[in-house]
Amino acid sequence: MKIAMVGSGYVGLVSGACFADFGHEVVCIDKDQSKIDRLHAGIMPIYEPGLDALVDSNVKAGRLSFTTDLGEGIAGAAAIFIAVGTPSRRGDGHADLTFVYEVAREVGEKLANDAVVVTKSTVPVGTGDEVERIIHETGTAHKVSVVSNPEFLREGAAIGDFKRPDRIVIGAEDDVGREVMREVYRPLFLNESPILFTSRRTSELIKYAANAFLATKITFINEMADLCEKVGANVQDVSRGIGMDKRIGSKFLHAGPGYGGSCFPKDTLALLKTAEDYDSPVRIVEAVVKVNDSRKRAMGRKVVDALGGLDEARGKKAALLGLTFKPNTDDMRDSPAIAVAQTLMDAGVEVAAYDPEGMEQARPLLPGVTMCANPYAAIEGADVVVIVTEWDAFRALDFKRVKELANAPVLVDLRNIYNPDDMAAAGFTYVSVGRV
Question: Residue 372 catalytic?
């Protein structure tokens, strides 16, 4: 089957490469000529483990190609996926659907055969209805079925998530859409990956509901971590204790500096906007957004406290290890590191930082931070070392070397990757999250 993937960003490129690996003929389409040129040269526009090899092998096999010509790319495609960005709209937090609707109109104008148009981008409820209206408004003579197929990919583990999914959600309003999507996902269906067919609007809401629920779990355990610090409990044991309950589960119960990234922040805001539009408040999600926003600055204040408070912190140096919102990605969107660094600089603290993949993206966001070539260069002369992102490269630091380079043996571990007893034995003043 020929598949067209309109949008060659994170979702489009990963999905397109994986579909090609299943044996489909896939054309990835993007208006950014420089991005397409880099892809032709084998240069990935994003960092995702294993993606470069996956793209390379399928390009060589003739199953994956790239173009800026939408008409050429969608010609003969049975399924046309829309995988463009839907960032938060300035002012109200609603998802900006400009790119989605532009693609819908252009697809309608250039369609040369019957096709199923699939919204892969994360979009509010009712977007599929509008996509369908726009395509029909172009006057196309071809039959078009519009389907919702949200993605559930974790950055840093996206290829595995695509090939071994928890579920595949397909929102379709007719048999044509359902049958084409069955064929698209037939390789996974044979592997017994569960496929859930729903209405289109239900499918659109599932994506937002899933992300909002996961964001809620993260925010809940972060608030429990604060309570643990007050009462003398251990949040990691609390997480284990509640996570062993099968009704709750252990995932997304790791205390830290708050969630960030490309999905949770914008999707929770978009869900709030949808709920407001339909006069159906989602108070829990409102609280989640508010608590998460305040937490990031609170983690910066935790570091200031480790430096002796506002009066003592000014003029001192902090070394931030990790800048991306999570490991195994170069994504800086809404990363807690941004708020932590800004809080420190507002307090007069000099900030140096290192991240294995994210420094190029971090530089324009953190102009006052000194970017270093390795973690030890950042640590040199620091009065506090702060672990912000749990990259594997930070899990076995040479603490003898750290003590030699730093001005003071103080470590603030915002990801709880070290054991308090081990750090005390190594001679460090150690501050973690939800543990005393």
Answer: no
